[in-house]
Amino acid sequence: MENNNMISIQVNEKNLIKNIGQTFSGSSTVISELMQNARRAKATEVRFYTEAESEDLVVIDNGEGVKDFSKLLHVADSGWDEATKKEDKPFGMGFLSCLFAAEIVIVESNGQRTIIDTQKAINQEAVLVESTGNTTPGTKITLKNFKSPEGIEKLLGKHLSILAAGFPIGVYWNELEIKRQFAVNVLENLHEVDGVLVSLGADFFSNLHFKSYSAHTIFAYLQGLPIYCSNDFGKKIPSTNDVVLHLLSDEFIPRMPDRDKLFDEALHEKTFKKIINGVVRNELLKLKASVSPEEMMKYWYLAKTYKCNDIFNDIPMLPAQVLSIPFATPIQLQDFHGNERNLEECSRNITRAEIESGEVKLVGYENFDCDEHTGAPWVLGNALGWLNVSEALHSGHWANKYISLFNHHHDPDSDASELKVIIEPAGAIIAIEEMKSGWVHNVSKIVVCDHYIVKTTDGLYSAEISDSATSGYVNDELCLVVPKGDVYPGYIIEQIADFQGEHDFYESDRDEEESHLNTLVTALRGGKPEDTLRQVVLDGCISKYPTLHGKTFVISISETGEISLIAQELGN
């Protein structure tokens, strides 16, 4: 014989009501709920009153008032009309937050009044509603002995301006009107897209020339109250360069019970970004139709950030922000942002005519890595004044086909051509020595020469270099090439070694290798003895020994390199 049991949800009302107070995140929830109730009652303003010596909070609105006092203490039954229920989807728990925030709650509205002992109400004891005869419109709620760890004055001072910033009706505290500069009825130039009102701040299009430009902060409001912020830096109120959203669609559902965050927020974040990208695109297209190409270049990074830089594809100009000039041969250690330290931004925008005529040549360098790249392309580009395209252009941009790539990973689908660079030592080749270093693994030799020619393998471009050492291929062998005009070649050691362990930069090893390389090059060069000695003394960091400063010595160096002091002539 089968023994079938039926089960269903059962509610322990007493425990449920007691636990409701634990679900609200804090005393600030009461403020937002009372503001929300005033708005739903079609009030045009809500006023908060406090006294310095009192812990009572009085809230007055000029709305339609409480129609059914019994609904005040109903759980999950808000008592609002059907239109409000459909539009706002109230949880029917907002007023209950008052019971856990004060000892006594007094409600006066539409000629009636109730004085609620909150502990008795929580214990489900009946509460008297009496007639007052007062026909003043609106609702007055008094919360006596308001429970706030930080004090009622501090609570309002901290939260009211945040809650009111996007609220649609007037908010006052002790007769002082709180700013609502981001409310729907205050904002200008609103764009409605898929149930979202979008406002780009008045300064949204300012300060756009910075290369490190990042997206603005996004603030979203639901039913006038803050519900989303895209930053984690404690910023609570938008500024004039941020993006403000007001969510109108019923797809945006708040989290119970505080309504301070969106349910499934990560999914909505993607929606916000897509909508904002579209609004920014439209605004930039308007600008494009009304300003000069030169003026339009200022908005390159903004367009890139909001994924609409394709609108630049047909503008016959390249912005200075995406172009850079190499002023020195690179080293491996990049700057704090991961950028090459030997590049500086181009000083002006470049026209399509300059590029098509060959007056300006565009190249693309990958981030320097001695395991795969050499410094030779940078030396050539610097010598010939080529401009590096430091930011990827949109795939449909007209300039792509004019970019030559110094690249070991050439994209076969790209319009760009690939350049390979080699070095030819020229003039007198003074010495060729094996490269020995604990940090250098791929460079086999050091070549000391009068000067060298750096050129592309197709023979179209070349330059003679006499004052800058670099690494490059000499007869298919990766070498360090040092011309006689480079007076301190030791720095180039950081081009062929990174001196970085898993977590540390070995500065002392770098200094030692740099000094060793200088000494080696000095010895290989030969030259005047006094020049050699001077270099050796400099490499020895004589500045670290103050007891030697201001002295003049006569020394003797034997055939085997031993040093002896003959005399101390001056400075005794």
Can you describe what's shown?
- By secondary structure, the chain is of the alpha+beta class.
- The chain folds into four domains: 13-177, Histidine kinase-like ATPase, C-terminal domain (Heat Shock Protein 90, 2-Layer Sandwich), CATH 3.30.565; 190-290, no CATH class; 302-496, no CATH class; 523-570, no CATH class.
- 24% of the residues lie in helices and 25% in strands.
- The protein is built from 14 helices and 28 strands.
- The strands form six sheets. An eight-stranded mixed β-sheet has the order 5-4-3-6-2-1-7-8. A six-stranded mixed β-sheet has the order 16-15-19-18-20-21. The protein has a five-stranded mixed β-sheet with strand order 9-10-13-11-12, sandwiched between helices.
- β25 and β26 (477-483) form a beta hairpin.
- α13 (507-525) packs antiparallel against α14 (529-539).
- The longest helix is centred in the middle third of the chain and has 26 residues, at 265-290.
- Mean pLDDT is 82; it is low at 408-412.
Strands, helices and their partners?
Elements: H1 13-23, H2 28-40, E1 45-49, E2 57-61, H3 82-88, H4 96-99, E3 104-109, E4 112-117, H5 118-122, E5 129-131, E6 139-144, H6 152-164, E7 170-173, E8 176-177, E9 190-193, E10 196-200, E11 218-222, E12 225-229, E13 243-247, H7 265-290, H8 293-296, H9 300-305, E14 317-318, E15 323-326, E16 343-345, E17 350-351, H10 352-356, E18 362-365, H11 376-384, E19 387-389, E20 403-406, E21 417-418, E22 421-434, E23 445-456, E24 462-465, E25 470-474, E26 477-483, H12 493-496, H13 507-525, H14 529-539, E27 552-557, E28 563-570
Parallel strand pairs: 1-7, 11-13, 18-19, 18-20, 20-21, 23-26
Antiparallel strand pairs: 1-2, 2-6, 3-4, 3-6, 4-5, 7-8, 9-10, 10-13, 11-12, 14-17, 15-16, 15-19, 22-23, 23-24, 25-26, 27-28
